[in-house]
Structures
1.
Amino acid sequence: PPFSGEREREREREREFSMSTFNNISLTRTFLSSLCTEFNDKPDSLFFNDGVRRIDFILAYEDEDKKDFEKRWREYFEASLMKMGMELEAIQSVNEKLLFVKVHMPWDVLCTYAEVLHIKLPIQPNDLSSRPSRWRFLSCITKHFYPNEELITKETEFFTAPFEKDRLEYFYVRDKDVFFTASMRSRMAYYILSRAPYEIRGNIKKFGITKLLDRGVYKAAYPLHDSRFNVESKEEGCPNERFLLYKEWAHPKSFYKMQPLNLIRKYYGEKIGIYFAWLGFYTIMLALAAVVGLGCFIYGYRTQDTSTWSKEVCDPEIGGKIVMCPQCDKECKYWRLNSTCEASKKLCIFDNFGTLVFAVFMSIWVTLFLEFWKRYQAELEYTWDTVEFLEQEQSPRPEYEAKCIYERKNPITGVKETVPYTACGRCLRLSIGIGTVLFWILLILASIVAIIVYRLAAFFAFSAKLRAQDMKELEPLKEYVTPQMATSVTASLISFVVIMILNTLYERVAIWITDFGEFELSFSPVLTCICSSFSSSTITPPVSTSPSPKGKRLPSNCGCLIELTTQLSIIMGGKAIWNNIQEVLLPWVKNLILRHCTRGPSEKVIPRWEQDYRLQSLSKLGLFYEYLEMVIQFGFVTLFVASFPLAPVLALVNNLFEIRVDAWKITTQFRRIVPEKAQDIGAWQPILQGIAILAVATNAMIIAFTSDMIPRLVYYWSFSVYPYGDHLNHTMQGYTNSSLSIFNINDFSNNSRPMKTPYNITTCRYRDFRYAPGHPKEYEYTIYYWHVIAAKMAFIIVLEHIVYFTKFILSYVIPDVPYAVKEQIKREKYLTQVVLHETNLKLVTKRLKPVNDGIVKFAEVNLTREEMELDF
């Protein structure tokens, strides 16, 4: 890590002087003349050739003499590793083109860097009795949905504390070979590799395996899998954790089983483990939403033939006698209302009172999901020893450290430290970053406008074609294919393509902004989710227009919920299918091509490091794409659920595949991921909370402005009152007629008049609430219209306040950390205080001598004040 302060600078100069002697170092490498013979019997060996030292990391490169500086950097880098305590062993590959450098961390180096990285290790077994599960009486049934306990045994729970090398005797060390797990060793090895220098010229220091990989000095750097995924290793002491993960987690036959999260965390680290824990929890919560959404859909499907408004549209005596106005100028034709009979029935499936109930339910569901996830996350934090994992304990990125050339005084510690740029430079970079974000948001707004323009043009074109009476080939489809539906489907396909293209660009821009401005890593997902949300907002309802005597069409009541539903189903389904194809096919095809090109011996005879080299490496963004895909899906499920109750069902089906696809991918097609520590899901948590708040407003507006629910309610309670005995009767009869205004066809202007009038009519109808011709306020809005507008605004305000109040109550009532976890955390802190700190206090107390006047003086021992303070 970079040094700060004058004392650290002196140490740096001393290291530069000592490192300058490494230029003449030539590492001794062991080349085996008959590699196949050596590894025929032990292809899955995880040790050096002596069979004692464990391999913690692998470096791979091609030994070429064309670039001398690469060879010089490589030798300097490996010499630096040896100087830092690492042990290396080089070996040639089977095809004699590649060289592999095995990296081993001795015990003393492990202890040193475990203390540097604040790794928590066990101090004593957990003595708090765990409470029995409330569902233990169902264990005979639920055990079939959990991984096989005979294969994946439950590990002993320990109280842990940050490791301290000088207090090793207080830690629970049974066997030094397994005290540090393989993921811990790999994490510490990567920490050293990321900070080992490969060139020092004056004040310029170049370091880190990442830069060497980018420049091609090394072809790959990775920790080893412990076995093949489909064959159990026969090596002595091999845990075969990869094989167990594939069999009980990644295999398609295990799709119904719960995930072995503790084994995932142990093998891949906390960052991978917390992702799969969140994805699994989200999927379980989706099951509840999917059941309610499916029930809402079934209710709409069963009532589509009995709803009053659909029966009036399909009735030959009502809808069959209503002639609708053309939907565009000149080319469009008049049409009968009952020609949309099938479309009106389909609309009733999604546009009913069950949709309102489901929208309110989902607003509460999203709150419960976030609150229960916080509780579950708190349990994982304690179980996985990340409770006190603070940002200052997380080491900075090597790319960030390399840019630290300016000095400043830390306001907290008072010590000088290095930073990558001055205050003015930071403001400049911040301004450029914000400007870039605003530019891309404006670009998305431009794409939304373009989609709307396309909708208008396509709607008029489809209206002219699909309403044509002389096109006999379209007669069988006229009841099912409407201009609105055709416009919606084509616009949705265009929106899907635009979203997929722009999302790729956003991700690249986000990476560039993160590196350029050195923002927090959370800036990338925030930018991408903002842009993805904007691009998803191209799901805009088509603009409905009404005829006007002035020649310009007027905006009218939309009633286009079915079009919005169509767009959501196409985009959600298309994204799910495309993402799964990418995640499954691309890694598999790449590995297949690589194996075909190499054409070396099979995995049965080549060593473990060469087997892993043939696999794909994880991208620099790691889990960024996985989180992004799920968060965007979460937005679709919550933001637009009022228009598409089946969204949770589709999301649930997709996630059941997503979990196994991701598990299969990282277990079988990728090299072992470098373990990373993580306390939570990071910047995605506030993004989810923001989506949950926004979802209430979007669903309220969808119900108010794209649904016919509010006009129906206003009609039912205000305009359909008939005397019935001694009381008033409310009915929906006559709603269709009341929702259609009258237009005199003689009022069409010359530029908008239809070319043909097939019916013997003088008036036509259109969707709106305007006065009829001949009225003193003809073609102006009626009182019904203003009642509807007032009802919509009141509905939005009342629904938002009720749901937000309910969300606040639930957030307050449900604690973020379970009581049992709080007890265990307190117990662990107490043990840490007793075992590690009070022992030191006793040692100090022995060196103090109390006197009668109450003043404590030092005993006659050879201790200076500095030594006493250090001991204390």
2.
Amino acid sequence: MKKNVIGCLLMLMLFNARADHITGGEMNYTFTGMSGGQYTYQVTAKLFMDCYSNRRLPNPAYFGIFNKGTGAHIQDLSIPMAHQDRLLLTNPSQCITNPPNVCYDIGFYDFTVTLPPSAEGYIIVIQVVYRVQGIANLSPGYGNIGATYTGEIPGNGQQASGPQNNSARFTGDDMVVICANNSFSYSFAAEDKDKDQLRYSFTDAYIGGSGGGGVNFPPTAPPYQSVPYGSGYGAGSPMGSNVKINPKTGLITGIAPSDGIYVVTVQVEEIRNGTVIATQRKDLQIRITACTIASASMPPEYMLCKNSNTIALSNMSTSPLITSTNWELFDNKGVSVYNSNSAITSFTFPDTGTYTVKLVINRDQQCSDSATSMAYVYPGFKPDFTVSGICFTKPTQFVDATVTSYGTINSWAWDFGDVTANDVSALPSPTYTYTSMGTKNVQLIATTTKGCRDTVVKNISIVDKPPITLAFRDTLICVPDAVQLKAIGNGIFSWTPNTAMVNGNTATPTVAPKTTIIYAVHLDDNGCINHDSVKVRVVDHVTLQAMNDTTICQGDTIQLHLQSDALKYSWTPVNQVLDLTDPNPRVVTWSTTSYQVIGRIGSCAAVDRVIVTSVPYPVAFAGPDTTICFATTAQLNGSTEANTFAWLPASTLSNLNILDPVATPTVTTAYVLSVYDNKGCPKPGYDTTVVKVLPDINASAGRDTAVVIGQALQLQATGGVKYKWVPYFYLSDPTIANPVATYNISSSGILYKVLVYNTAGCVDSAFIKVKVFQTMPTVFVPNAFTPNRDGKNDLLRPIAVGMARIDYFQIYNRWGQLVFRTSTNEYGWDGTIAGKLQPSGTYVWVVKAVDYTGAPYMQRGTLVLIR
């Protein structure tokens, strides 16, 4: 069951702390009797203001009375405020999250007026400055806008009993809130003491006073101008297309737009004996907040009328209080065709038709709610219209061009986007006369007999004269040719003078003057006039003079030039001209060529030629590319038949005045030989030779080492692709990078040299010294050293012989403090700790290692530091 969460609405009035604070108003009256042939009325007016605005309602307030038909001023009244009420929301529903603080003041003004009989009736008016700023459904940048609130007293011209009228009085609760993007309903219902028939509709909100200082002042006479509605909004849709008003009950329902302030004006027409005798208005700035309501919220209808029969379903309420969701779709016989418990789902209808969509949330729980909507599935509906006549103060014709595949079009709602309140129509193809110029936002809402409804919006420009578009404003013909003039526009065309003209009353006359003449075109669009002109220049021959003959380098592109008044050109030969119709084309010439051009003005023609002589580029040969080793030289070998030449870059060449200089590049370098001759081509010929410099060889034979007799030593050279070791004895293979050396006698040092070659055969060398000890694997540690930085015996180094690795070598002082540690062979201690010199004395060392057989090795000893 649908729940009414305090109407789920709350009207909030937003204010600026200056003069922009008035948020709504309304007026009603009671007929109290006649005296001396005059009618007396008790009038009550209400003005709304936010409690937090720090502003005051006008006291007194100025009212004006005017003749409703002529706008003639009757009288002004200064009325003190009768009383002021404050409305405060104190108990919001538990199903609303993030409820706003709501408080606003209402000022009441009561007064009596006595008026003589009038055929037209009267309008009572109050104008205030200003409305609140930042209203979301008005055009951006509108600034401060005042407000006008009215009440109408009927005359006796239409109904003799008209003046004896009690106005309709709005009875809806003013304490209402609307949560953004949630469904809502809010009543603008009224009651009428006379039991007149009441009809409700949205209408324009009026601009009002513009006085300074926020002070109320006597109002101006009608008519009153509408506020400037923004795109997507209007007098008939102040909260967008998803919000409607019931014309019989005044109930507003739909899906609220995003949060913001929206000005909404509702009029109720009092109908007596089939005639509208008076219209009363209520104008409110409704604030939509970012609160959420646990509700079943969806559009009042789903229009699947364009090109899809798939419906997408989601609850527009995002309240965290929603714990369950159920969707169900029914056909027009009440048979269920789809059911889902997903919060978001979709369904493709198997056939056209009208379906019912039902949404239930929190079934049998707190904040349960349900809603139903209609889905119209009739693809192929497209609203459209055409426009003719766009002149200010002249009728503009609108023609419906809507198409539909199902049913017929049965309803049209036009909004012509003008500043008046009467810029609407329900005719299929209406006319409208605009009261101002500029761009108009025209809207058509079309409806079909199947229930489909859609909106099309177009911008049209209303101007003071019909636009004329000319195909050209200046042209040239040659006697005796004719030319067709062409103008584009809506209306009746005529041309003057009619000299040598055919069809002068059309948009496209043909003229054949013998001398230059200016033809004026006149466009009449329903009495709206515009003028323009076309100049037709006349000659009796074509002027054509080509450029002088020229010489270019073979294969180059050159641009040819003409002096001519021709309108069309044709060049040959076609395979060398890049654009055959260009008066100044670019051409590519490989051999001497005669280029011919024909220039035409209609049937007249002229011919001329340009001879372009082609001269070959001078030939240069810089020699073949070469590759050299790092830090070596290359001999260049250039050749040419030209009479001058130049090499670049010059910095690494031995001589720039010869064709075969010596190059000494440090990196790979491209040497360019440029040659010049005097045979007619002023440009140089080029050729390039590249000298590739191989990188320097980083030859390595490894670190010097020591082994014991019988220990296999794996040598490892790097830096090249080919290797040669000398001497070769004790080596498994002297021609590989990693031979194995095995020794059977001791040696104080064998010095090996390895030659390292790269891919080009460049060579470098490196050395390694191998000591061979006739002993068991051991680590030699000196018993003393003198770290005095004289370059002699400054480091205490462990020397491992026959060891696969050193796990650690450690030195301790007399107090057992570790002063040095390493696992690298022959890496020594300099007698310091963190850069601080250690004292002379005895130190203890410990070494742990693994020999080449895999056996562990452990040794201790002492050493003396001498300073």
3.
Amino acid sequence: MTAPRSPAARAAELRLRLEDANYRYHVLDEPNIPDVEYDRLLRELDELETAHPELVTPDSPTQRVGNAPSAKFAEVRHAIPMLSLGNAFSDGEVQDFVRRIADRLDRPLPKFSAEPKLDGLAISLRYEHGAFVQGATRGDGTKGEDVTANLRTVKAIPLRLRGGKDGHDPLKLRGKDWPAVLEVRGEVYMPRAAFEQYNEHARLHGGKVLANPRNGAAGSLRQLDPRITAQRPLAFFAYGVGLVEGGELPDSHSATLAQLREWGFPVSNLTEVVEGADGLLDYYRRIGERRDALPFDIDGVVYKLDDFDDQREMGFVSRAPRWAIAHKFPAQEQATTVEAIEIQIGRTGAATPVARLAPVQVAGVVVTNATLHNADQIARLDVRVGDSVIVRRAGDVIPEVVAVIAERRPADALPWTMPATCPVCGSEIVREEGEAVWRCSGELSCPAQRKETIRHFASRRAMDIEGLGDKYVETLVDAGLVRGVADLYRLTRDQLLQLKLVLDADTPDALAASVQPHLPPEGSGAVLAAIQRLDAADEGWRAAALAQSIAFAWNPKKIATKWADNLVAAIDRSRDAALERLLFALGIQHVGESTAKALALWFGDLDLIRRLPWPLYKRVPDIGGEVARSLGHFFEQAGNQQAIDDLLTAGQVRIRDGHPPSAKLRDGLHLATLLVEAEIPTITNLRAQALTEVLPTAAGIVDAGPEAFTAAGLPEASAAALRDWLEQPGHPKLLLDGEAAIASLLALAPEADTAQAGPLDGRTVVLTGGLASMSRDEAGAKLEALGAKVAGSVSKKTHLVVAGENAGSKLAKAQELGIEIWDEAQLLAFLERHA
């Protein structure tokens, strides 16, 4: 059995751990333990030194506020030390604090200024004759770091104080309203929303993600280059004063804060003057209730005797004032262990890694899961199963892993990699170049994406199923009546009427009462009893009720049926679909209305489009590699193909405007173009043409080696790159399938367009403003029928802008670029001439 450590040995160990934590946080900006653990260690050391005064050393963390200043900045010695505050963690400690003051002042209800304790970086600002001359961090309380240049970039900090005007020069401020020398103490912090935006930008662009807003504020002020600080979203609140010379301040803390606000300093509007322990605890609870909704992080509240004479009477202990204390909230950071890393698929297919954690209480809530955002974040943090990590929870924000405690890592912990397939539907998980997010490519077939897929499919610009609102979709999916888009075409009037009853009912009993008039007498008792057994506290009770198979005999006097008839009619109308609408309705990543329209125009047939190898989509103007690969991934998923088959089976959906591929496709439909469109490294048009003159078939290229490629005229580097490309899984098949698809397209596409060229062929038109005679969609369709490409924005490639009423920036840009502009009368005249 290990012998218990002596107080001296434990104190030495605690000092080392606390100094290391201070160094990592203040110097390296890389915190390695959560706040609650630091506080616990500091209190343990304080208690040891109180019990054994001989153990106190001058360099003990209990004898100073923070860490020594960094050698990177000049040293500033504070004229009046910036001392820390004692901490209270319970109501009893607050009551003891007030009792000591009341006894010393002989006043039963002393007045306090109560204010939120911001989670930022404490600083001191020195003003001379109203001008900001120096700013410093708190450092060790006696001396800090000169960060004047960085503080000048914080817009919330006034560079010159507000005050009266000089009579001789109204633009010059006179200094009699403030002391000749004034030191203002306060907190630089990073607002929550700005912190999240900064981190999101960092994740997307491979930058350093900040651990928390306080770390962000501290790191920002300690940048050697002030231009970097200027890019950080920093804010400031003043909370007190230090040195004051050549002037006087009000006689209380609250009045001084009011004066500082008049001089131009931001001061928290949450500050209040309260009386006694009850007033302090009431304030603590009220601020605690508002904590989650505040725009900035706080880790507690601060109580200060309001009257400065009372403060002087109470005095100081060695490292803190007796007249002030910080009442801390439950910690928002804790350490725990990662038990697993799983993938969660969102409604848009985004694959988000989630850490399954050993349960830990953070900010009063037991946390078992935490987001890891994306694979890049995992790589940056190097999170592994078995790691000890710091977890943060702020308000209603989903808990997140912010740091790994590397020294506690198990020896067998392995780096994590993104799984290849979706855990929900088995489709491929893909990540496009330049994207931070990985996505499940099984859009139509993935249950996790089902509701979003159906909403989009039914939307006005897709299949336009009018009347199918979000609440209907939610309940139909939850009840299992709609498992995919094809199921929309199997919905009956009875099911929709039952759906309306379910959504209108507040409780199962209310639903039973509304259902009863529509049931046949025989068997109705069992149906009603089954509904009444549902638990109203269960959020899924409505879906469970809808899932029950019930025979209805609708009483038209007790229910409105027209809306259900209208919805059934809207579903029926959408069965005869334009190809471009159906393609858009499928919800393929990056395929918007204009891309769907282009695919329909150039290929004309859904069965053809869904079988093409991805490089051939790039034969359509304005479709690049990203969109083409997205189309390829979508159609490669068996679940998506099955969903399309289900839509087309038995006439559920009929495409009304199919046609042969455009004759324009024939230009460039050959093997050399396929090689280039497949994005094989170093294979240019000239090299592909030279290669296919010697090796004219895909099979010949697949079977050949680098020597044959160099013999065909490729440089050695290009020959090696082509061979490497062909050795990757799926690439030979892509080439062979592409060659077969080219043959099919050439067989289907006419030799030349038989239709006469439209008057707007090759011209790009932009519509802006309101039209009185038709909608913009109708006008766009008429223009496209005459050969135009209708675009959404004005650029140098725009040929014509049609400007209706209240046309805005697009019209202005067209005028700036000298583009031809028509009004509605000119448009109508043109359409009439070419009707």
4.
Amino acid sequence: MSPYASPNDHRQYHYLTLANRLKVLLICDPETDKSAASLAVNTGHFDDPADRQGMAHFLEHMLFLGTRTFPKPGEYQQFMNRHGGSNNAWTGTEFTNFFFDIDNAYFEQGLARFAQFFICPTLAPEWVDKERNAVDSEYRLKLMDDVRRSYQVHKETVNPAHPFTKFSVGNLDTLADLPGRSLHGDLVAFYERHYSADRMALVMLSPESIATQLTWCEHFFGPIVDRNLGEPALTEPLYRQEDLGLRIDLVPVKESRRLSLTFPLPPVDAYYDRKPLTFLSHLIGYEGNGSLLSLLKEKGWVNQLAAGGGVSGSNFKDFGINFGLTPAGVDHVDEIIGLLFGYLKLIQRQGLAPWRYVEKQQVLESAFRFQERGKAQDTVAGLVLNLFLYRPEDLLYGDYMMREYDEPLIARLLAKLIPHNLRVTLVAPGLVTDRLARWYQTPYKVSTIPEASKIRWQQCEPDSALALPEPNPFIAGRLEPRTPAIAADQPACLIDRPGFRLWHLHEHQFKVPKGNLYIAIDSEHAVKSPRHIAMARLAVELLSDHLNALTYPAELAGLGYQMYAHQGGFTITLSGFSDKQALLLDMILGNRTLGYPDPARFAAIKQQLVRNWENQAKTRPINQLFNQLTSLLQPNNPPFEQLLRHLRGVEIGEMPAFVAQLFREVHVETLVHGDWQESEALALAALLERHLAPYSQPGSETRRPLLSIQDRGTLIRQHGCEHEDSALLVYYQSRTTRARDLACFTLANHIMSSTFFHELRTRQQLGYVVGAGNLPLNRHPGLIFYIQSPVAGPQVLLDAVEQFIDLFPLAMLEFSEQQWQESKAGLQAQLSERDANLRSRGQRLWVSIGNKDLGFDQRERVCEEVGRLNRADLVRFVTQLRSRTSDRLILCSYGQGHEHDERITGQIIDDTGAFRLTAQPFDG
């Protein structure tokens, strides 16, 4: 049968069940550049044996290490990579999902390899210990992750008989051999006990016909054994009565404050066609004028509010309401909860109205009607769980369905959002705690919420400042896309004069009434000094906060907007239905000058930005090294610690004059793309100029320099980082931005990355975070190798990287001619991949404008250069990277317990300021 599809979706769909009871959705997409498949198994860490916690996750890892048909570990990943593909998997509570994409011509061969995971994996004993270490590294990687640490506390405060309490990741302790039982034996037994065709679902997408895909599907996946396991059933409740009415105080690693209210509900999956919780989340999480968030912001207690999240499973559903607190908010938790219950009463009395449901229904219907094609891998991985959750006819529509307003159902669920069905979690530094969570050592304390507090909250009446949302003025009225007068494939420059450039493309391919607006405002004043950069970023945060209540209805109606500071000034982007984008832009521009910011909001936003920048020192080591790399080489992107020194000294009185000066001389670059006619693009330009003209003079584009490391040999920057793991990043920089150099760097990464990962991560077991990548900075390509390791210090990691680079030319010579040509063709296919949707095309065009690729053909030129490269060219290129002799930048941090090794030789960068003064910038 064929599930109901969007009117804008011209792919063919076919749902069926194979003889072995594997559920299958086949998708024929003649226009796709990639084919993809995703197979999900209805088993996850809930199924882990009590004495083998982490087993489902460990099995997911092991399945990638060879099958009886294709036994060589790493061959699967190398095959996918060589043919322009990628692959991954994840393990959740009740599901495990595996997926890949690949060039169309190799899809059948990819399926042949992929299917064997579920038929005859080797689960080779010789790889068990190595992969057990990899799982342990993954566990250690998240030891300081506040989300994971909070999750463990949640697990320890629910019904201990529910499988939610199990340790999902696993480590060396839970995956050790037991007396009389080997890990390998238990692994095989787990696979045979839980991996069964009747608990699996498969989605395939390809340009091949449904009939061809069906043949492949039956041939490759038909042999999966049906063990007749039936659906897993959870019988224990997640919460007992004694698990409700709790307050949990938890101390985070980072400087963050959060209040989470959790209301346990019965499972709601059966109501997907009516979405009662979507409706309630919409009302509770509203951020416009009169909202609960606006009131709490005004009081200086809360910066953020989100409603509707929470853990869920086949027999439980948490409805979460989460508040991002200010430091002052920590002292007003009781009042915040009281105001929430007052607001819930207002919803109960006035909010349950059919027109509100219809408004949300219209937005979702429009989103479904004009649903755009996504990337092949995202499509299959996103749909596969729907085969377990929705009726076959609703597989595509289920996420968008709001079939009817069911007031009794909504009221029944709303009636459960009461103080006597509540768990409260407060996360903040300095709280008093009396226990440590297992595995992550999270400090926390559990206490009972007093009955008097519950009664007081229950009696709270709505605050007079609270009001429910008005009808939304941003819901699009024009929903028919227009046909362009001329079907062009690249933007035309409609205006090009000092200080202002306008690009326009009326999109003809995707046929949706949507648009993208990109507006880059360059201001030399924004980047004149580190203090100015700090103030510009603060100005953007203040403006975003100021606009939030005004623009929130637009976001609800399917309009997105974003504002961010960058190396030249700042950028505003708008996306979604084009009908009301001009209205939204007018509102944003009309508020941009800030006037005099509200003192309380200024203090809260500044404090929040300070915390965010302080918390950068607590991110995982490899992330800190990436930040160090960009801040060292990009003068307009100073390190957070330098920005912090300036930000702390900024006073409210400075901001209006600073913002006015930001706009004094500006260069505006705009792209109007999508369902926009030329006259409308010119009208938008006039709107922009009308808002800017009274305050602005034409300026020039801001230079975005990149410092050169050429002819300096090995440069070394050691970064202090309080973490158990060590980390290393090695960066090679291109001398030019020519297409040939781009081709060399890109092809080298394409060929090296999967082998590098397999060698250092899987075989040598140096760490879980291992990779090679092409990292362009300010248009200059760069090649990076990075590792974060719990087992080795920077010198050992550098030795491994150098050995890999030194030996790789020999490995290249062992490539067969077919492998060489296939590798190049795989990269060329990636470079030639068509834009999946309007947004991805808009982003590509905007990046081209930023890169001064004004012929919009850099990808094509690089693709041609890749075709011209021969093996000797690449061997010569990699040989130039040969360790110790090339120009490179090494960044490293020493983990606690790893000795400082003085063998890393090169020019040490102790003083980053002095380095920036002596380094020569490229033109930019």
